[in-house]
Amino acid sequence: MKSYRKELWFETKTRRAYINITPQVEECLRESGIKEGLALCNAMHITASVFINDDESGLHADFERWLEKLAPEKPHSQYAHNGFEDNADAHLKRQIMGREVVAAVTDGKLDFGPWEQIFYGEFDGGRKKRVLIKIIGE
Ligand code: ZN
After folding, report:
1. What's the 46 CA to ligand 1 centre distance in angstroms?
2. Strand partners, 136
3. Residue 31 CB: number of other CB atoms within 10 A?
4. How far is the CA of 91 from the centre of ligand 1 (A)?
5. What's the pLDDT score for residue 12?
6. What is the 47 CA–ligand 1 centroid distance (Å)?
7. Both ends of the chain: CA-CA distance in Å?
8. Can you say how many angstroms the Cα of residue 82 is from the centroid of all Cα atoms in its chain?
9. Cα of 62 to ligand 1 centre, how many Å?
């Protein structure tokens, strides 16, 4: 069995962002040489997500509105977590959007349906953060 590991780094200027990382994951898969197996992609931070959905800007605006309804950023004082930090909303948003995805690798490709894309969801940006890519198989 082969095993491949890589960290992808991100630093968004905005507090929240959705970045399509499918091309980088496909690059990792090529680099790994693995043809059959599984690819795990997970955020290495507890205020960011990795998830699969459609690359459509209207949907991303809908995510933003929906998450702000569920866990509004402000006022910061509404959250018990915000004693020394101001990112309680980011922890909650990440919890909803998920930590990781696992994609099947078939014939050297991510075995996706027609509209599936992998996203990095940032909820507390403005600093360097990482996504782990782990691919196993043969
Ligand atoms: Zn925090």
Report:
1. 8
2. 3, 38
3. 12
4. 6
5. 98
6. 7
7. 5
8. 23
9. 24
- Measured CA to CA, the distance from residue 112 to residue 130 in angstroms comes to 23
The residue ranges of every structural domain in the chain are 2-137
Distance from the alpha carbon of residue 92 to the mean position of ligand 1, in angstroms: 10
* CA 125 to ligand 1 centroid distance, Å: 12
Domain 2-137 maps to which CATH number in 2.60.40.3210, 2.60.120.460, 3.30.70.270, 3.40.50.12780?
Answer: 2.60.120.460
Q: At 2, which amino acid appears?
A: K
pLDDT values of the chain reduced to their tens digit, one per residue, 138 residues: 999 999 999 999 999 999 999 999 999 999 999 999 999 999 999 999 999 999 999 999 999 999 999 999 999 999 999 999 999 999 999 999 999 999 999 999 999 999 999 999 999 999 999 999 999 999
101 Cα: distance to centroid of ligand 1 (angstroms): 23
Between the CA of 63 and the centroid of ligand 1 the distance, in Å, is: 21
Taking the centre of ligand 1 as the mean of its atom positions, its distance from the CA of residue 76, in whole angstroms, is: 12
